[in-house]
Write a structure and sequence with these properties.
The protein is mostly helical. It has a domain of 34 residues.
């Protein structure tokens, strides 16, 4: 039985509500903005070679600015409080549990 996409998306959303994941998304945006800005300036100053060099320098600068501010998802899940871990377990079990004849929709 394939799991319903909406259920899986809901599960992932409940995991992403953790503040640390929001911070990781914010830091990714910051790194991308720095990379793009430096690449843009490099392109204006040096044309295509400047764009390539600006992208490389901007990528390194963005990585340096955001280093140490990311955590892998498994680590975030393991650091959840016990009550949140139980909630996540219950939601995952509801998605993975075999379908009974009374549920809808049964695939």
């Amino acid at each position: 039985m394939p799991a319903m996409v909406g259920d899986i998306m809901q599960l992932l959303c409940s995991v992403s509500e953790e503040r640390k994941m929001k911070a990781a998304f914010k830091q990714s945006g910051k790194g991308a903005l720095v990379t793009g800005a430096v690449a843009f300036v490099g392109g204006l100053v040096g044309g295509p070679p400047g764009l390539a060099l600006g992208g490389a320098v901007g990528g390194l600068l963005g990585a340096w600015m955001t280093s140490g501010q990311f955590k892998p998802i498994p680590q975030i899940i393991m650091e959840l409080p016990p009550a949140e871990q139980q909630k996540l377990f219950n939601e995952a079990s509801a998605i993975i549990r075999p379908c009974s004849s009374s549920c809808w929709p049964c695939w």
